[in-house]
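Worked problem 6 (solution included).
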Amino acid sequence: MRNTALIAAALAVLLACTACSTVKSAWRSTKTTISPDPSVDLNNYNFDNPSERKLASLLTPVDAQLTGLLRFIETQDLLPESDWLDLVMLRFPWLNGIFVVNTEGGALAQRPTSDIRKHDVSTLVGNTTDWRTIKFRTAVAYSDFGPEMYIGRPYFENTDWKGLVVVHFDPRALLNACPRPNQLVIIHPGHAVWTDAPIDRQTVLALPWESMLASDVSGSIRVDNKNYTWFARFVADQQIVYMSESATDSVQDRSFFFGLF
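Solution. The predicted structure is:
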């Protein structure tokens, strides 16, 4: 009887050890396949082309400002409170202002409250737009005060569209985020060139951007006997182009920034 009890106890210990080993093995498998330890591939964004590397270093901090703004206001889909408007202005000090309009474009609130300029956002409001399928709409206005970019974000009551939250800014202010602003060119194709770089703006505007952007989002061009590398991106429904003088002297160099943003 005693031997039987010892054998039963030994089998119980063996089964417990086996079960424990199985659980540990399963946990290791789960941890490595379903929830692996996070790692960052620091070589993922290394560019073999020095022209790509140069442009990326110039545009990344600039574009981060735009991306951060879009992500921030994207979280607001209800009529914003006063504190939220103040927070946007505090978080993005390069903005000229922010205002809230109804479905007809009438202003309900604005920051700064002292802004006496008239802002026409009729192109943002539209007439037939289904704002339930659109996150943002962008427009750029030109006046004696300079360029002004407007980005509209819809807000709702229940599921009914009630108006827009609109941020606006001078696109040239973005150059302040660039580590070498006199080397970066920002282009609004067909409209304007925003830069401190010594480049012929009219020559840049005269380039066939419409056909170039129809087939590519990046490439190389020659302006004033110099090679430039460029990369295009959309700010909502407006396309802008970042450009800098190439680090190499081969116009055959192509820039491929896919996956960078």
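Discussion: Residues 2-33 form the longest helix (32 residues).
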